[in-house]
Every structure is written in C-alpha cells, then in structure tokens.
Amino acid sequence: MNTSANLPEQTVHIVDDDEALRDSLIWLLESEGYAVATYASAEEFLAAWSPALAGCLLLDVRMPGMSGLELYEKLAAQHSTLPVIFITGHGDVPMAVSALKKGAVDFIEKPFNDQDMLRLIANCLEAERSERTQRRQDAETARRLDQLTTREREVLDLIVAGRLNKQIADDLGISIKTVEVHRARVMEKMDVSSLAELVQMVMSAGK
Q: Which domains does the chain have, with CATH numbers?
C-alpha cells in the first residue's frame, strides 16, 4: 500500500466498542490488502494518535465514555488530517450529518454493505494520499522561497502578478538585465524549468 518510500503506510484505523464489528471489518479490509488497526474506545485511539498517522479513520458515533463525535472534535482541535468516516446506527444519523458539516468525509449506517464501505475507504485513502503529497510539496516550496533574497522575492511576486521584464524593471527601478539575472536565480533556486511551472508552484502553495 505504500505509494512512496518516504510516505508512511496508509492504515485504516477502526474505533468501535463492538468487538464483533471490529473483527468483521478486519477480515473485510485485510482481505482487500489494507493495513488495519483497531481500538475498542475513543480514549484508546486518542492515546495512540500522532500527527504522523496516515490513512483514514472509521469511527463509531456512539460509544461508552468518549463518543465518536467528541473524539472527532478533539482530533480537529489537534489539526488531525485523517479523513473520518462515521459508522452510525439509524437513530444517530442527525449526529453524523452534524459531523459532516464540521468536516467529516462521510457516514455509513449499520448494517452496511461491504462494497459501499470499501468504496468509501478507497475514496478516503486516495484523497488523503493526494492531500499529504500536496502538503509535502507546499512545504518544499516554502523552504525554497525562504532561500530567496528580498530582491529575488520582489521579482518573483511581480512575475506571478503577470508583469513583463520591462515592467518589472520600471517597477523596481532597475535594469532589464538585472531583472533577467534575478529571474534566472529565482528559477534556479525554485528548481523549475519554465515560468508557467514557477507560477503554478507558487500559486498552488498559496505563497
């Protein structure tokens, strides 16, 4: 399941006090090749949670002690990036809908169809993988931006704003040749081969 050597393995984390349900989900998911970890309570998962966890979270809405919703809110407060699918009984649907409005990915009612569950998990894992890759790329872009001098950053900002070399030279009161030198250094430091790639990188990172 690893997509790259430097990415942690995606794991489906199951938090449910129903042992029979946990066991059936382990069987279902492991038969599909997923890595699975189970927890009998929200407290148990919270104790094991770290920002490095990758994958997704299957979370029962109603459990003894800390509820699934309470755990979800605690994870959100800690900026957890794990996508969450709530497992709910029929009477808990309004609670699950409330969680969706707060950012949960989806919910599924018990008893659920195995294929529906597998589809939800596959979608979650793909979204989480893409988001994690994007976060890593954004962090790398930020690191490269930090290497630019003040003048290089000024030139970059004007390039991203769509200004031409002559306009940048006029804006900054420098020669076109100097703009070209700064632009070449920006391209080198940002490790891009085209202006389009440079602009896309900076815009994507929101910098």
A: 11-137 (3.40.50.2300), 147-204 (1.10.10.10)
